[in-house]
Write a structure and sequence with these properties.
With 65 residues, the protein is α+β, with helices and mostly antiparallel strands. The protein is built from 2 helices and 3 strands; from the N terminus they run ββαβα.
Length: 65
């Protein structure tokens, strides 16, 4: 099963959660169980390879990603 990086932000916090899912929508559904009111985005995990995850998360939080 493919792995996805789910970016999340809600009233509790923010971060990147790695999940195994059928596709990006399924990955978001999985993360939605723990972050029901949060903002979510999912991308294939291989796209984060070699990237600074802190910078990617910061850009996503600013609405740049």
């Amino acid at each position: 099963m493919p792995q996805f990086a789910v970016f999340f932000a809600d009233g509790v916090g923010f971060g990147i959660k790695m999940v195994q899912a059928l596709d990006a929508a399924h990955a978001q559904d999985i993360a939605r169980a723990q972050h029901p009111t949060g903002r979510l985005s999912a991308v294939p995990a291989e796209l984060l390879h070699g990237q600074d995850r802190h910078q990617l998360l910061a850009a996503w939080l600013r609405g740049e990603g």
